[in-house]
Inverse folding.
């Protein structure tokens, strides 16, 4: 239940950030419908993923299965470690090709979203293959 | 490291989910343990051995010739 409460707290914090971003996109400088559409899609995806995780964790708790155990914790730690290394290369590439970017925002966006994507891929890979355990 | 978990589970008529619940881990962890693809913590190894009422070394087999386990 402790994990569930922590997850709920994290989710609420993320939801507040998403809501803040949404308001910023809606009333801020960005008026392009395509960009607003992408932002809304990202927000919906985030809320959907969060809801799915909460439902899954709640059903796990009901069945008496821990939401997280030593295997998932190790996989997360290893994925984080690997993702950090790969992200460094991504940022290096971004800085090498920084002259190709006319504005700083897309550069930072690619860096931040790219890092998140790298972590997601690493986590999925290590959780499904258990490959981190070969060392 | 090799394990006899699969064999012992079959003998005790335990499913992966049942063993997972007994030792307090997720079923995926037992799946990887069954395949010998995950080295458990000492605590988990002990819990599993206790379920089968066997000493740890009879459930988890260390291959001394394997350079990774020296």
């Amino acid at each position: 239940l402790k994990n569930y409460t922590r997850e709920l707290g994290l989710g609420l914090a993320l939801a507040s950030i998403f809501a803040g971003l949404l308001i910023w996109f809606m009333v801020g400088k960005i008026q392009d419908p395509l960009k607003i559409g992408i932002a809304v899609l990202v927000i919906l995806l985030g809320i959907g993923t969060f809801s799915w995780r909460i439902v899954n964790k709640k059903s796990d708790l009901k069945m008496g299965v821990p939401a997280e155990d030593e295997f998932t914790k190790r996989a997360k730690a290893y994925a984080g470690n690997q993702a950090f290394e790969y992200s460094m290369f991504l940022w290096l590439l971004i800085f090498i090709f920084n002259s190709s970017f006319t504005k700083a925002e897309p550069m930072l966006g690619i860096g931040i979203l790219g890092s998140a994507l790298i972590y997601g891929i690493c986590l999925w890979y290590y959780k499904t293959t258990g490959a981190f355990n070969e060392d | 490291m090799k394990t006899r978990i699969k064999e012992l589970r079959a003998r005790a008529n335990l499913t992966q989910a049942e063993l997972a619940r007994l030792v307090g881990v997720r079923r995926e962890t037992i799946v990887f343990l069954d395949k010998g693809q995950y080295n458990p913590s000492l605590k988990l190894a002990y819990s599993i051995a206790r379920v089968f009422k066997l000493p740890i070394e009879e459930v988890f087999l260390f291959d001394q010739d394997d350079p990774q386990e020296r």
Remarks:
- The longest helix of chain A spans residues 33-62.
- Chain A has four helices and no strands.
